Every structure is written in structure tokens, then in C-alpha cells.
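Bench log, entry 3. Co-assembly request; chain sequences pasted below exactly as received.
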Amino acid sequence: MAEAKANKRVNDDLVEALRGIVGDRLSTTDAVLGHHGRDETYHTPHPPDVVVFPEATEEVSRIVSLCAEREIPVIPFGTGTSLEGHVAALNGGVCIDLTRMNEVIRVNAEDMDVTVQAGVTRKQLNKHLRDTGLFFPVDPGADASLGGMTATRASGTTTVRYGAMRENVLALTVVLADGRIIKTSRRARKSAAGYDLTRLFVGSEGTLGVITEVTLRLYGIPEAISAAICPFPDLASAVNTSIRTIQMGVGVARIELMDEVQMEAINKHSNLDYPLQPTLLFEFHGSEAGVVEQAETVQAIAAEFDASEFRWETKTEDRNRLWQARHDAYYACMALRPGAKGFSTDVCVPISRLTECIIETRRDIDETGLMAPIVGHVGDGNFHVIVVMDFENADEVARAKAFNERLVTRALAMDGTCTGEHGIGHGKIEFLTAEHGEAVSVMRALKMAIDPMNIMNPGKIVRL
Amino acid sequence: MAEAKANKRVNDDLVEALRGIVGDRLSTTDAVLGHHGRDETYHTPHPPDVVVFPEATEEVSRIVSLCAEREIPVIPFGTGTSLEGHVAALNGGVCIDLTRMNEVIRVNAEDMDVTVQAGVTRKQLNKHLRDTGLFFPVDPGADASLGGMTATRASGTTTVRYGAMRENVLALTVVLADGRIIKTSRRARKSAAGYDLTRLFVGSEGTLGVITEVTLRLYGIPEAISAAICPFPDLASAVNTSIRTIQMGVGVARIELMDEVQMEAINKHSNLDYPLQPTLLFEFHGSEAGVVEQAETVQAIAAEFDASEFRWETKTEDRNRLWQARHDAYYACMALRPGAKGFSTDVCVPISRLTECIIETRRDIDETGLMAPIVGHVGDGNFHVIVVMDFENADEVARAKAFNERLVTRALAMDGTCTGEHGIGHGKIEFLTAEHGEAVSVMRALKMAIDPMNIMNPGKIVRL
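Structure output for the full assembly:
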């Protein structure tokens, strides 16, 4: 597929000026540009014209100022693991790769918060925290950067208990479209002081500014953790068990669904022998007694819905293997069909509609004849269909896209959203309008107010 | 004090046009105008020119359209219990009183959410929910409207466990400054679809639009609830107990501080006989076993900090009396000095700094010679000093204002906020700049983008 044309305003002069800021931490080689213009999906790559690797907020500010003077697009880049074309340089421009901004600036153990540079990844942070008794819970599949997770309003398997990035970002340092640096908030746990700029930038996908530092909530590592894997005779029983668990107010830390196709994929990929049935994976956090109490309640609910067994993973290494397998679900799907690429859907619906939504979707997949495992954060009403497909096959592409449109339409009709956690990028711009209607005009007004020249990751979330 | 001059553009013609929308649900009598231009504090009253009482979003839309055509200010009004001059019609205009929009539109028990019209109060909602096993936890002192609580980003005594309005609003219906109606979100528990308009309007204090409907999260009434009252030998011991409790990750539902002055006030006001010492009030929610476990942990912490006793309030009526007394703290303070008015501060700091902040503040109060009890949501790092004073006494006013400025400066130096839950209104506009610096320019840009004519509650949060 054709790559976007380079931005003609990015000339030797600009590259020299950028070099004046970052020295050798700059690249214009095809390999580096190519790497920065694509994500993990089928979206057409759009490489930037130049990639810079700043090490400080001040450098980012100078880079953005330079781009603002020349009206050059700026595309922030974390780990490139987003899924809706977020990093595509649709009109060329300067990619700001934040991976060298990977310092944990300050752990405030007493306040249970931490400030990091945007390039720190979630695994790096948790490794850094390992002697503090604290951890950061939000865990998308990839080992994404915390800046990227903030920018896409990411969530993960623990959101049902600990919330998403929306709930866990306390404050941000942001470089605005004209190079000014702001802090969106202070470290107090709550504030009623003015518009909630923190939440405005959480989920803004680089379109309003470059997030350079993030202050996050941390949590105490629970005294006790236990996990269980629980296969069901059919999808409806598994989903209904998760709905009932939420409605009973059991504070499960994780409640994840995999359908039988997904179980087969992870068995193969991770060399496991779990039953090939729709399965729920649970994790319980709390005191020793609290964890037992939660697990007993859930086990009783599962039994009502004819769960085949409730297999405990008590050893830390078994538990880790279980969740690693879950996090590798996407890659496991890819391995089902060598050479294929993935197309992940991301709808989220009110939990009362979840069973209906998943059952109809499974039927739709089967009728469409796609290879498409289902995996879901069912405690939040969010699930992914990972369509494993050949993007060179026009018929398959057409069928997959039509399937996704039907799925989004189904979720919207149930008062749900087209994206629970992946974001809009440019891949879901049409769906944003279907979902928000007139409210998109307010989003457009916000974008124009904060980035009047439309240089910040242009073409994402809203088109001007 | 002088009242603001009426807006000359509000003429008979406009009143007639408004009557065409709301019929007799409109008033221009002095008593009604006066009531709508003042809040519960010392702020100078600024009555609007006319008050309308719409019953539907569609009516609000038509009212705002009419005002937009004529560039007339629009001031939304809930119960008038805000504390920073939020409802003052600084330039006159049309006050939209939402109290007749008091319908609970839909309880989604299975999804644990509810949609209400903005005028429904928190107590009305909980009364409505009483047979569902669900409740809405956010509880500012007053029985405020849920629209007003959303607009001020309110919180309360249960925020430490259940979060503030920020965490508990799922979606809003908003009438924009030109009369258009938008929905900010759907009912899914999470979404990554575009800018977070919901959080933008939560805390916007009527300056970006009129909130007419609110969708809120609900929670299951816990299986077990217990409360305790725990006096300490000194303030530091009480505050340190609360800090340790939070740091240990005990999921207390409430942890509230009252200093000895406040205890005396509530004893008198509510005819109670609690010890006149700095005191923590606790509430625990959970399973029978879970509540016992939490309470034992907290009791052990309190003992370490020399708590005098740990007095259980096991009966529902004793517990209700306890929390009613807590909610009446402000009124109890007023009763300390007949004819006096209250001036409530509202700083919130990172919890590691809370003891230092409260101790310094108590010393400051004593040195200043003010009558000023302290009451606080100490689990969040938020506390109020309620200065009980005579606003006709210029010296007392000067001392109180100077005290508040020192308190805010102290909190900001500790990375805290000038307002944890009361908002900015026009009373704290100067502090907003001290707190947010350059970021206020972004707030101003947002305001101008969404309300370009500056008709929505002008003069609040930011001045244009």
C-alpha cells in the first residue's frame, strides 16, 4: 500500500535546527522512519520525515516550538503498540520518540503516588517499585509506555478493581502546541479547582499536546492474591457468571473471558493444556480471609452457571504463567495462522447487555466464517474480537470490516461505545461521530482552541 | 453591600419570550430574585433579573437559545448551597432554577447506574433507591442537587472509598451556550472514544453549559456497616492515625476528623456528649467478616497513636445520629455565635503533608484569635476550617481573609490545592492562578471555545 508523501516543509534547515536541540538523538534513516510510522496492526504505514529522541520536557518544548513556527506536524511516539493508526504521520512531520525519557522521577511511597517521564513502561515502573510494597495496576496487553497509556486512556485486566488510566492519573506535565509547558494538576487526591485538564489530556492521543511527565496513583501489593481458571459449558454461562459477580459487588481484581477458540490459541502459543471451553480467569486481592471469602462467593456463582471446575492457581509461578498467557492472547491469535495480521475490535457495553452482545457477536463471526477468537475484560463490559486475517485478501478484508461495523452498531444500540480502551486514532474516526453525534462538534472546538494550527498529531480523533 | 446592577438587556420583551417557553414558571419578584442571587456564605448577593423554572431539557435549550440571541447571561441554579459565589448573577441575567427538573428518569439496577434530571437531590435519589438494594454514596454536607454536585465536582465523607463526582458521573446531558443539546457519553463503564467531555463538564460550574441530566454509578448497600468514634489526646495523633489507615490500604468507607472546637459545637447543636478532644469518626462497609477485620486493623492503629477509646455505634439510629451530626457541622459552627456567618476554607494536600498542614493551621488560628473549628475528610487530605465571624466587623474580615490566604499558600507549597470540593466560583479566582499558573490560559481557551459570547455563568472560574 502507498505510503504518505513526506512533508515538504521538513527540509535540511529544520533538521539542522532540531539537531541543535537534540544533537545526535535524531534520525532520518528509512528503517527508523518506517518503524515509527506503523503500529501493530493492518493500518497503512505513514512514516514521519524525521524522528527525534528528546531526554527532557525542556527539549520537547523547544522541538514543538520549532515545529509551531513552521507549522510542521508533531507526532508523539511511545512504544508504537497502539492499534488504531495513532502514530501514523498522515501528513509527514516530526515524530517525537519519548523512549529516552524513561526516568522514574519520584516515588512518594507515603502518598502512594509516583511521577515518571512519559517513556517509562508499565513493567519498568513495577520493577522499579518492587522493594516499596507498592505497584501500578493498569496493564494493557503490551508493555506500553505510561505516557502512551495516558494518551490513549488505556485500561486492562485489573480495571474492574483499580480503574483505568482515567482514574489513576493524578497530574500531567504537557507541552502545548506552541511549546509552552503546563502542569495539569497538583498531587492532592482530589481538587475542584477549575476545569479538569488532567482528564482532558488523558485520552487526547497526542492531539492536544505532548505528555512528558505523568503522576500516577499506586496501590499496596495485597497481602494475599489467588487466581483461578474456570471453564464453562457455553459462552452465556461464563458471561452470566461475570455479570452476577459484578452485581453482587464482589471486589474481584480480575475477571477475564476467553472463548474456546482463544483457549486453543493460548494453549498452542504458551504450551498449556487448559480445557477448550469458554473460560473465565479470576484473580482475587485482599487479606487472607478476604480473598477466601471472595473466591467462595464467586465459586458458588460459577457453580450455579454449571462451571465445569474451579481450578486454583496458588503458586506464584502458575499465576504468572496464567496472566502472561492472557496478555499474550493477541500474539497467540497471530500464531494460529502464520503470516496473518490481527484486527482487534474493542466495543464496551453496559454489563446487563453483555451476554446478548457477545452471543450475537459469536453467531455473527460464525456466519461470516472469520477466524476470530473472543477475549474480554468482561467485568467492565469490554471485549475484543481478534480477527486473524490476510490483509492481501480483499474479500476477507471486506468481510472483516463489515463485521466490525455490525459489531459497533450493535454495541451503540446497547448504549455502549465503539472503543473501551484502544482509542480512536484515525481508524475509528467515523465511529466517533456515530457514537457521539453533536458532541463531536464540541471535541472539534476543543481541538481548535488548544491546537489552532492543527499540528499536534493531525488527523486523529477529529478531522478539521 | 451594594447589589449588582440589573442587566439592561433583560426587558419586558425577553420576559414575555421566556413566558412563551415556561408559562407561569417564571418570577421577577424581589424575594425570588434575592433568594437566587445569594449562597450560604458571606459573598455579596447578586440577584438575577429573572428566574425561570423549566421542567425539561428541551425547555432549557429554548431558554438558552433565547439568551444567546440577545447575549444575556445564564446562571444555572440547583439548591443554592454552593460556597464560593457560584450562583451570583454578577452581570444580572436569567437564572435557570432546575429544582422542577426533579425526576429520576431510569434506574438500571442490573448495571448499577441511574439517570436523573439535574434537580434531583442526593437524599431524594437515595430515598427513591431504597427498595433496590443500591445507593449513591457522594454526600456533601447539604442536600444538594445532583446537577449542582456535578457542576462543582463535589465530594463528601465517603469519597475515600467511593470517589467523588469525578469518579461517579458516567454521562451527562448538557445544553450548550447556543442551545444545542449534547450527550457527553454513553452508559458503558469505560470508553476511549475521544476527548473526555464528561469530565470536562464535571466541575465546570455552569460556565460551559447547563447540565440537565446526569447518569451516575450506584453501589450495592453493603452487607454490614459499622461505625466508631475515637477521641485522641491531640490533633497530630488523630491525623497520623488516618494517614496510617490509608497507607495500610484499609478500605474504610469514612474517616472524618473533628477538632475539639468542632466537637463542642456538634455536642451543643445536636445534644450529644462526645468527649471534647480531637476525634476521628469511622465507618466500615463490607461483609460481616470484612468489616470486623477492617475495624480491628484500624483499632490497632488508633491504639498505637494513644486513642482514648474506640466507641462503637452499632445501632442504625446511633450511626445515623453520628453522621447527621457530622453533616450538620457547618450549621453547628454557626450556632456557636448567634448572628455570625461562616467562611469555610477547603484546602486538600497530599496525605503525607496532612499532619503538618493541620497542625500549622491550628497554630495559625490560635495566633489569629479567630473562632474556627476544623473538620476534615482526612482520608483524602482535605479539611475545612470554618471561620465563624461577623462580616460587619472589618477587622475580623481582614484577619479571616489573611488567614485563608496563608492557608492556601501553605497548601500550595505542599503540592496541594486551594479547593478539594467547593470549587472556584468567583471567590477563589485569584487562587486558581496561584495554583495552576500557565494552565489557566488553557482553561480560558476552553471557555472561549465552548462559550464564545461568555454568557454561561460569566465571571466564574476564569475571567475573560
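Residues 394-413 of chain B form the longest helix (20 residues). Residues 428-464 of chain B form one domain.
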